[in-house]
Predict the structure.
Amino acid sequence: MPLVNKVKFFREELELSQTDLGKIIKVSRQTISSIERGDYHPSIVLALKLAQLFNTTVEEVFIYEEE
C-alpha cells in the first residue's frame, strides 16, 4: 500500500524523541520507528491521536499515493 507519512517531521518539530512520542500516545518506541519507516500502518485511532498531538489533520500526516 502506497502510504507515506510525515510523522518524523512533525515529531522533530515538537523536539520529541521516538520514546517520548510513544509515551505520550501510549505505544512503544518500536511502533513509532515502524510507522516512520513505513513498515507499519497505524489504526485510525492512532492516526487521529498523532494528528491531534501535531495539531493538524490526519491527511497532513498520512498521505495515500495511488500507484
